[in-house]
Each structure stands twice: as C-alpha cells, then as structure tokens.
C-alpha cells in the first residue's frame, strides 16, 4: 500500500482527495500548511508521492517553498501540484523546480488517480534502478591515476554541454559507466537514460522501432540520454535510418555512443558511414585500459572485494602485498570486468575465514606469468647454483625490471616505492640494460597520451557537426 502526503489549506479538498485515494487502497497523510507538510514528510518514512496545492493560505511557506524543501530531501519523490488559481507561468515554474505534474482545479477523479499511479510507478522504477546499480558495483570511476583524474575532468566538462559524445575503449574498461556519469552530472539527470544495443537487429525491426512516435528509443529517451552500446555493430541499413532520424529537427535527446573497435579504420574501409561518424564524434572520449592505469589496481581491488563481501555473504579476505604486485604486472586483457571476476574467484576458492590473507601463490595460474616470477619465492631456486655476485645481479635485474613494469615505466614512483634515490636508480637501470639512454623516464603511462579527448582536444576539437 503506497503512502501519499496530501497538502491543501482547504479542509474540504483534503478530505475529498483522501476519500478518492483511500478507495484506491492508498494510505493518506494530510497537512494544512507548509511547515506541517515538511515536518510530516521528514517524520514518515515510505511516502511515495505528494499532492501539493500551490496556494497555501495563511501558511509560512507556499506550495513552491514546500516543493523546494521536499525535493531537497528526496529529489526523486513525485510531487503533483494542484491549484484553482495558478497561471501557466506558475505551473511551468513548478515543473522546472522538480514537480512531476500539474493539475488544474476542479479535476476529474480518474485523471488524478491515473497521474498519481503513473508517478508512483515511475518512482518505483527509479528506486529499482538505483538498487540494481548498487548491486552491480561501480557507479563512480575508482582510481587516482593521472589517466583517471584526467578522464573525470573531461566527464565533468562534457556533462555541462548537450553535445553528442563518442566513447572509445577496450571491452570491459567501463564505457557505459562513463556514459552514465555524463548523464547523471548533466541537466538531464532526472530524465531517462536509455540503452540501445544494435547487435543482430534487422533493419525492418529497427525501422518499426524508430518510427513509433510513442515507443521508439528516441521517445523513451525524451529530454534524457540515449546510449548506443557498440555503435559499430549497426548494419549499413540501420546506420542510414539512424542518421536520417538524427537529422530530423525537434529531438530533445542527447546521444552518447560507444565502441571497442577502431571506428576510424572502419570509416576508411567503408564499413561505417563517415557522415554519421562525424555527427557522433563531437566530443570524443577514450577510456584507458587497466594496463594503462595499473597504479589504480590496489584501490580497485579494495573496492570490489568490499562490494562482493557486502552483497554476496562471502568471508572478507585481504590481499597480500606480493599478490597485489603480481596483479599489477598482469596485462588484464579483459580489463576491469576481468579483475572483478578474478577477485570473486579468490573470495570463493581461497580457503579460510574472516581476514584470511590471499598470497601470490593463491592467484589463478594465468596471472602468474614469467614477468611476475620474481615475486614467487620458489621461482628462483636456480640462483642457488650461482656465486653470490652473479645471483645478486640476476635477482637485482629481475626485481628492478618487475618494479619498473609494475609502475608503467615511471622511474620516480618506482624509486619512491623501493626506497632508492631517483638518479641512482636511473643509473642502475641503465647499467643493467633495463632502460636505454633514450628512454623517457618521466613517461608515467601510455594513458597520458591516449587516455581520452584531453582538455586541449575538448577546447579545440574541430569535428562539431550539428
């Protein structure tokens, strides 16, 4: 049974609305003035909708003031405004302030009930989506690497515009998350975020889907965001239909597309329409792979392990430093998705109760590559047959090479970690032929060059086609 708060200064109206709603099996709470309404809203958990009169005679705050207070407490709560004297301008103002709908007094009972039921259904969907997102995991980019900090900066800037966005990046890097963040940080955040996947869709089916003014993907995403997942999977016929619809005036929808393929190469090969590419690629964003941001792996491991424990009932375990080091040496072809799967596997398969430590030897065999052998204590038994000086040099070279790789070639961060002065480490690496004289030792990560459409690209990008 849904709980409804009814706010009106006229007792007859309050009682009339209460009777109507109670006949529809709603639980009703009533208030006669603004401050009482705000107080009741705070005190009563589970209110799922508010019916609010704009003019509250003799009240400390009017209906718009109550609307502002209630939406500040819960921005998703549907508030249906009612009035017998309000102007069109006032009705529009209330909608802009976050009201769900506006009804003029006197109103038909069935109209009030229909609007209220639709509002509550929409509210439930929003709550379910929020709970689902919490279960699925990351809703914010986790990490402090330069690549991720730069990506967050660009997301914040792009979110303030209505320009189309093309997100590129390998599978599993979090392209959909980036699209969701852009939507949530934009002025369209309260409107729908609709996902469309054009894989294996016949052009006839797409034609029917896009032509229906009430149920098409553009209608569903009205005033919100339409996210095209793997846009390069569109057939030529669907590309033609989609481009034609993009060119039509009157669509109040922001389009964000993503791809894990080299779309520029597909354009050159004639497999993707060049004019559609330029229409989508107004704001290009590249999401770095996990291999380009290995310094974020400890934070990602901590986040995912906490999330998995909280949502699956598994025993909490912790990763040892050597296990984390091995994970930082792995290339992660499946990116964030693969990392999360590995962590779930470890929580299930490694025996032990609360706070059991997971060591490098516990990791899946495919993670223990030759590059990571230095951290496995039993991998260097051959050193026992060598004189101390030779064994020390081999160990030193393996150890330093592994640490440099772990920090993506960043000499400063490597020197900080191993406790060695930077210039001394640089000389040592050259003497061991780990780096050459021409090596750029300040190149933190490949992500610095390719991570995304950086701030300069954001300002100077020339492919802006309306």
What report would you give on this structure?
- The protein is an alpha/beta fold and 466 residues long.
- It folds into 4 domains: 3-133, Rossmann fold (3-Layer(aba) Sandwich); 146-288 and 454-460, 3-Layer(aba) Sandwich (Rossmann fold), CATH 3.40.50; 297-370, Orthogonal Bundle (Helicase, Ruva Protein, domain 3); 376-431, Homeodomain-like (Arc Repressor Mutant, subunit A).
- It has helices at residues 11-23, 34-43, 63-73, 88-96, 109-136, 146-159, 175-184, 203-211, 217-220, 236-246, 263-268, 274-280, 297-312, 321-329, 335-349, 388-406, 411-418, 422-431, 447-450, 455-460, and strands at 3-7, 27-31, 47-53, 79-83, 101-104, 165-168, 193-196, 225-228, 254-259, 283-286, 317-319, 356-358.
- The strands form 3 sheets. A 5-stranded parallel beta sheet has the order 2-1-3-4-5, sandwiched between helices.
- Strand 1, helix 1 (11-23) and strand 2 (27-31) form a beta-alpha-beta unit.
- It is elongated, with a radius of gyration of 29 Å.
- The protein starts with a strand and ends in a 6-residue tail after the last helix.
- The relative contact order is 0.08.
